[in-house]
Amino acid sequence: MAAKTAEKKDSNQPLDLTGGTTLAHGKLAEDRALALLQAAGLKLITRNYRTPGRGGGEIDLIMRERDGTVVFVEVRSRGRSDFGGAGASIGSAKRQRIVFAARFYLAALAAPPPCRFDAVLLEPEPHWLKGAFDASEWLNI
Length: 141
Fold this sequence. Notes:
Layout: H1 22-39, E1 43-50, E2 58-64, E3 70-77, H2 85-88, H3 92-107, E4 115-122, E5 126-129
Parallel strand pairs: 3-4
Antiparallel strand pairs: 1-2, 2-3, 4-5
């Protein structure tokens, strides 16, 4: 039986979304986004953070900048840019769910650090949007 070898993907290469399942595409996109962010010096805190209970929120990646800023990252991938592309799929309701999860995460900390909300869009080339949206209207900490 041949051993499987992991092939390291370059985070700046286009994402191939042909074949496979939606779940597999999402994991591949998150892997690519994580590699991109780590190459830029961010450290992974947690991945796929979910709030307990039904109707809560989920954050794809929670990272830390060198200066201590906590970065909540939404990863979106699209094979084509029709209908506004990956960025357009992060609507108001999705942003509110991300902020809900971020508030839940931050509430567990003794002192909330500075934070921001980024997005990594793979359409299929990677685009990192720092400060992708302003959460000040929902983030009362």
